[in-house]
Amino acid sequence: MTTKPGASTDANYLALGDSYTIGESVPEADRWSVLLAGLLRKDGVSITDPDIIARTGWT
């Protein structure tokens, strides 16, 4: 794998799904994808904030 000069080496996190993925009625800081990214960072993983592409009703 090669990277472009100045390219980020952070892992990207895409959370794709329905209301369970987005955490319907859950504060953003308490959503699973946000918590998981925080736990990964705590373990030394360089990861971007999650891109959450989820909507209530998507199944």
Number of strands: 2
Query: Would you tell me the overall average pLDDT?
Result: 86
Terminal-residue CA separation? 35 Å
Main sheet strand line-up:
1-2
| Sequence of secondary-structure elements | EHHE
Instruction: Find the structural class using helix and strand composition.
Output: alpha+beta
Q: Which residues sit in consecutive blocks of at least 5 with pLDDT less than 50? A: none
Proportion of helical residues: 25-40%
SSE blueprint:
Blueprint: E1 14-17, H1 19-22, H2 32-42, E2 51-54
Parallel strand pairs: 1-2
Structural notes for this entry:
By secondary structure, the chain is α+β, with helices and mostly antiparallel strands. The protein has a domain at 14-54. The protein has 2 helices and 2 strands. The longest helix is centred in the middle third of the chain and has 11 residues, at 32-42. The relative contact order is 0.31. The mean pLDDT is 86.
In short:
The chain is built from 2 helices and 2 strands, in the order βααβ. The chain is α+β, with helices and mostly antiparallel strands and 59 residues long.
